[in-house]
Amino acid sequence: MSRAEKVAVPKTELPQNVAIYAHGLDFTYNPKSPFAKQALCNVDVTIEKGEFVAIVGHTGSGKTTFVQHLNALIRVQKGELTVLGHDLSVRKPDLKALRRQVGMVFQYPEYQLFADTVLDDVCFGLKNFGIEKDKREQMARDALELVGLDFDSVKAKSPFDLSGGEKRRVALAGVLAMKPQILVMDEPTAGLDPRGKEEILSLVSQLNREENITVIMVSHDMNEVFENAKRVLVFRDGRLDYDLPPRELFRKEEEIASMNLEVPSMAMFLNELERSGFAIEDDCLTVEEVFQAVLRLKEARDA
Amino acid sequence: MLKDVTFGQYYETDSFVHRMDARVKLVLTLLFMVGIFFVQSFAVFGFVAVYLGIVIAVARVPLRSVLRSVRGIVVFLMLTVIINIFFNKDGTVLWSWRKIVITDEGLKFAGKMFLRLTFLVIGSSVLTLTTTPVDLTHAVESLLKPLRVIRFPVHEFALIMSLTLSFIPSLIEETDRIIRAQKARGADFDTGGLVKRAKAFVPILIPLLVGGFRRAEELANAMNSRCYEGAKKRTRMRVMKPTWRDLIASIFAVVFFAGVFTLFAMRDSWNVITWLYY
Ligand SMILES: Nc1ncnc2c1ncn2[C@@H]1O[C@H](COP(=O)(O)OP(=O)(O)OP(=O)(O)O)[C@@H](O)[C@H]1O
Ligand SMILES: [Mg+2]
Q1: Which is the most buried residue in A37, A54, A123, B13, by most CB within 10 A?
Q2: Is B177 on the interface with A (CB under 8 A)?
Q3: Pocket-testing residue among A63, A69, A259, ligand 1, by greatest number of atoms within 8 A of Cβ
Q4: Contact yes or no for B180 and A73 at CB 8 A
Q5: In B131-243, which residue ranges form alpha helices assigned H by DSSP?
Q6: E strand or H helix that includes residue B149
């Protein structure tokens, strides 16, 4: 669906399956001052429950500003925003309920760790959201094991004694423990080694597939966007310029380059194949899928 | 939110005052700060206001940013004024209720205190608005140089000062980020009693401290890898030199404060100016 086709849906009539609905969202930092800086401009977007959406854009394009709106860390200045039925343009939305449902993983989340032990840190959110004490430990155990840490060996450690990658997992577990319905991540893989990246991404994909968690992921790595996201939002200077599935988006090689973004290597390969007359289905995005598709093409030609 | 704190509030423009030698500006500001305590009457406060007005006009900084610095101490100002009104019981009583007495002397005294503190803050904000923190630390270093005779580590002191200043913006940003991150995990800083609120700051302070140490270590490594070795044989890229501007400004300021000091010294002996003081 292109931007022009989209029609405004009045808030009251939002269908059940809509997770996020933004209409005409504007945001200016330090308004009415010499340092005023418009960071979002007329953003319209509707995201359904269970989607895996990537947000990309050049640095300073407003990605962080947009995602921080989603759990009311930044309050709506102008426009409409409804997240899981909470209208965020009102003066006092129910922040606790909202933040419990919308888990937010910040850039470098390991820098928010503070507690004496890993267990306490993971339980911090649970405690704030009023989960009873005897349930907390079980939930923390589930979350830590989900992110691939051995609960019994890390629970009593100081979070500051872990490696960078482990710290990030603990921080992620602290958010996942609350079992959010929407998982918002601001560059979750920045600064990780390839293996760590891969593990985080496959965990997130798995949560999206199996638990039907809505995932919003800001990323600078077009390759990971291409392989994981089902839909890509491209921000430029605070505007939402494109809202397309990855394969369609990365066919526009020139536009992508003009926005200082990279074309993922797989997309380049597929585009090249297409130009030479070998069309491959749009839903083949990973190495494995493309490999199978190429095999099919080969068989079809041989037959 | 936290970003609104104006600290290193340098206002970028080109003016007579901006171009002055930071050392001269610093000394003249100190002179002003001392001088203001010798002002004892509303009439002389009027002169000081005119003086400040001229300085601000010549510095070409907007009045709004100057006044913003006063906003920061508004609570302190109000407190001082109120305490002075209620606790000064000299002079004739204007109004009283039970134990609370307001006298004319008390009002005058509070008014002068108010003006003194306000002018003090405005005067020093002109310095920080027209001088970059870097220049300011250079000025301090240069002015403290004589202390090297008694083995005071002037260069190190100035370095600590400039590092502190340069860490402040990033620390503010970091605080902002951590507050948001903890809010996203349901942290609540706005409700509950004193103890609960104080406790709520632990999840902010610890990451901030840890981050501070991390940054400090990174910076130390960066300095070491660039072969930094203290004051030895270091030269400056921008050497400060007083010019005709500094001469003019100094004459202007010295003449003005010579006037203030004279009025102060003669407050009892010369009838013509007694009205200035009572
Ligand atoms: N706290 C703030 N105060 C003032 N301006 C800000 C603030 N945060 C961001 N901005 C400005 O708003 C614009 C959008 O910033 P934002 O952080 O949303 O970008 P981004 O797309 O997340 O960039 P990056 O990829 O570098 O993280 C930028 O131009 C930035 O300078
Ligand atoms: Mg960002």
Answers
A1: A54
A2: yes
A3: A63
A4: yes
A5: 133-144, 154-184, 194-200, 202-225
A6: none
Does A123 reach chain B within 8 Å, measured CB to CB? Answer: no
The CA distance from A73 to the nearest CA of chain B, in Å, is 6
Dihedral angle at the C-alpha atoms of B206, B209, B213, B216, nearest 10 degrees? 150
Distance from CA of B206 to the nearest CA of A (A): 6
Answer whether A174 sits within 8 Å of B180, measured CB to CB: no
Dihedral angle computed from the Cα positions of residues B133, B69, B32 and B153, in that order, rounded to the nearest 10 degrees: -30
What's the token pair of residue B158?
A: 């100035």
Using the predicted structure, report yes or no on whether residue A68 has a pLDDT greater than 60: yes
Task: Write down the ipTM of this complex.
Answer: 0.83
B207 with A114: Cβ contact below 8 A: yes
Residues 6+ apart with CB under 8 A from A189: A196, A197, A200, A201, A219, A221, A224
What amino acid occupies position B115?
Answer: L
Q: Could you tell me if the CB of A39 is within 6 A of ligand 1?
A: yes
Two structure tokens written together for B272: 């013509």
A62 Cα: distance to centroid of ligand 1 (angstroms): 6
- CB-side exposure of B211: number of CA atoms within 13 Å? 23
Residue in chain A closest to B64 (alpha carbons) equals A33
Please name the member of A71, A111, A114 whose beta carbon is closest to the beta carbon of B202: A114
pLDDT digits (tens, 9 = 90+) for A18-62: 999 999 999 999 887 777 899 999 999 999 999 999 999 999 999
- Are β-strands A214-218 and A52-57 bridged in parallel, bridged antiparallel, or unpaired? parallel
Token pair 């200016």 is at which residue?
A28
CB-CB neighbours of B180 under 10 Å: 18
Q: Specify the pLDDT at position B270.
A: 54
Task: Please count the residue pairs, one from chain A and one from chain B, whose beta carbons lie less than 8 angstroms apart.
Answer: 61
Alpha carbon A56 to its chain centroid, in Å, reads 10
Interval B81-93: pLDDT, tens = 888 888 777 777 7
Q: State yes or no: pLDDT of A158 exceeds 90.
A: yes
Higher pLDDT, B134 or A197: A197
User: Taking CB atoms and an 8 Å cutoff, what residues of chain A touch B210?
Assistant: 111, 114, 160
Sorted by where each starts, the structural domains of chain A and their CATH numbers stand as: 3-263 (3.40.50.300), 264-303 (no CATH)
- What is the pTM (predicted TM-score) of this model? 0.76
All structural domains of chain B with their residue ranges: 2-131+243-276
